[in-house]
Design goal:
Elements (H helix, E strand, L loop, with lengths): L1 H10 L12 H7 L3 H19 L5 H16 L2 H13 L5 H9 L5 H19 L3 H25 L8 H8 L4 H15 L2 H25 L4 H20 L1
Family: Belongs to the CobS family.
Keywords: Cell membrane, Cobalamin biosynthesis, Magnesium, Membrane, Transferase, Transmembrane, Transmembrane helix
EC number: 2.7.8.26
């Protein structure tokens, strides 16, 4: 359970136990729980949607759900998405891109990209029926964390050191299989639309990770967040299509 709580308290703002040991190997071992944590995030969002849909109009509910996910995750993946956009779209050398991504300040590319991401998420959520939205809210974070695990376990790390490297170094060989079984079980229970949307989104996420790895010479913690956000967007898009 210690490794599960490490992953839960890193990927979300849910605090169930007090932890002072954040060792690299503990981070790595927590990766096998990422899709389960994604399912927990999805269930919270789906429950929130069920309760608030009784009182709020659809356009307000869509905004609240987007805000709720950001609050629940502490904006962790949003930060990675913006940093990645700043670096990749800078038009600089590979080394300079990595330097830009490491900078704590957000540039114009990151702000514009994140604004477009929020606009697309809002537009897709507001266009869904209640039944579709319930399944999409659970599928979205599960597929996103599945691609994150694939990125961690299947691509090289772009920097000689960094927090993201601990995940890649200590994840273990069985991690990908464990997370895939959990993801498939959760998504299959949600029906054929969820299964197709999740499958297509995971493929899109892998292609995005491969593109970023080619540009940067590997992946980083920021790109893990970026591919997670883009995979979630792909899930919503495929649900609507």
């Amino acid at each position: 359970m210690k490794d599960f709580f490490t992953g839960l308290q890193f990927l979300t703002r849910i605090r169930l136990v007090e932890q002072n040991d954040w060792s690299p190997d503990s981070f790595g071992r927590s990766v096998k729980y990422f899709t389960l944590i994604g399912a927990i995030i999805g269930l919270i969002l789906a429950g929130l949607n069920y309760v608030l849909s009784q009182f709020l109009p659809s356009h307000v509910l869509a905004a609240v759900l987007i805000i709720a996910e950001i609050v629940l995750t502490g904006g962790l993946h949003c930060d990675g998405f913006m940093d990645t956009a700043d670096g990749v779209f800078s038009g600089r050398s590979r080394e300079r891109m990595l330097e830009i991504m490491k900078d704590s300040r957000v540039g114009a590319n990151g702000v514009v990209a994140f604004g477009l991401l929020l606009l697309l998420k809002y537009s897709l959520i507001i266009d869904m029926t209640p039944t579709m939205l319930f399944a999409a809210l659970i599928t979205m974070p599960v597929a996103g964390r599945m691609v994150m695990v694939i990125s961690i376990t299947s691509f090289s790390y772009a920097r000689p050191e960094g927090m993201g490297k601990a995940f890649a170094q200590y994840a273990g060989r069985a991690t990908l299989g464990i997370t895939a079984v959990v993801a498939i079980a959760v998504v299959a229970a949600l029906g054929i639309r969820a299964s197709i949307s999740a499958g297509g989104a995971v493929v899109a996420g892998i292609l995005t990770a491969r593109y970023l790895a080619n540009v940067l010479g590997g992946l980083t913690g920021d790109t893990y967040g970026a591919v997670t956000e883009l995979t979630e967007l792909a899930v919503l898009l495929l649900f609507v299509i």
